[in-house]
Amino acid sequence: QVQLVESGGGLVQAGGSLRLSCAASVSIFGFTAMGWYRQAPGKQRELVARITSGGNRSIYADSVKGRFTISRDYAKRTVILQMNSLKPEDTAVYYCAAGYNLTPDYWGQGTQVTVSS
Q1: Which of 49, 74, 96, 105 could staple 70 via S-S, CB 3.0–4.6 A?
Q2: Residue 14, φ and ψ in degrees, nearest 5
Q3: Sorting pLDDT into bands at 50, 70 and 90, what band is 55?
Q4: Which candidate, 86, 79, 65, 98, places its Cα nearest to that of 10?
Q5: pLDDT of residue 99 exceeding 80
């Protein structure tokens, strides 16, 4: 059973930074893609950032480009989302996801990020 556990969420003022971490219960070598999604109240879940194997390619939502960075640490079986220059509109529950293709097969429980103005 694959488990993904997020940590690092919290309350931060606009302009601040947070670092989200997702720890996997298994080796992450087998996943084609790992990513971070978010869901704000009353909105659909959206892709924030994703990193894929085979070229180590990463993509970002337009709204976070230049502010967020996704990375992987194979030895620690973790995926990190570094979030800088946070804005109130970044407020959401952030979910880690992992998949054997681009569609997630596993989800974490989510971590709340709240950015105050």
Answers
A1: 49
A2: -55, 135
A3: low
A4: 86
A5: yes
